[in-house]
Description:
Layout: H1 27-40, E1 47-51, E2 66-69, H2 75-85, E3 90-96, H3 97-103, H4 105-113, E4 119-124, E5 127-128, E6 134-135, H5 154-157, H6 163-170, E7 175-180, H7 184-202, E8 208-213, H8 217-220, H9 224-238, E9 242-245
Helix pairs in contact: 1-7, 3-4, 4-6
Amino acid sequence: MNGMNIVSQKPDAMTDVPFPYCPGCSHGIIHRLVAEVLDELNITKKAIGITSAGCSVRNWRQFDCDMVMALHGRGPSVATGLKRARPEAVVFTYQGDGDMAAIGTGEIVHAASRCERITVIYVNNGVFGATGGQQAPTTLLGEVTTSYPSGRDPRTSGYPLKMAEMLSGVSPDSYIARVSVHDIKNILMAKKAIREAFLVQMEDRGFGLAEILATCPTNWRLDSVQCMERIEKEIIPHYPLGEFSSKRKEAHQC
Length: 254
């Protein structure tokens, strides 16, 4: 290439279909991280992804592996069935907070409590993105949404659900982590968490979940830079980053 070296290119686990998301949306970054991990672990050909309702429903065209579409919130149940029928497969769900933390709460709680050998990529941007920016179970207190223009009031809407903390309580021997993609350092940490969430399944150590704090510029009504700043200043203080349950090889098996 005229003396030039390739330093970055599209992961093999991603198709050539252009990203369909809004400018500044975090799904593009997270898709790439998942695809890089699939490549590095050499599991693309035996991976089965489950996509769910929401903006990310389009990802069945982005990943170059078998993909199944689940009903709203039912990804963990579909993943459970697939993994038990095809234990040699590497099964993962890709879900948003409006999907997993709302109608799908029961599904994910029981999948985690059973330590199902599945991997969950959980994207938390605090709103129902695909349907117009309505309040989600993860919306911060006081945050303005299209369904609650006066902001979230705990007296009528309750408090934001902290899924990583909640699930670690019912599945203490699994790998459960919360990460973010608001800057380079945290993007690299997010990739490590995604990788471990796959490895805990592949090594038959239990259930793996990577919660990823993400942006929604359209429904937050902020530009891309402001979105990244908001994650650091407003969202991380409520949703702290880190490992909430980390299953090691010497730990008790579920």
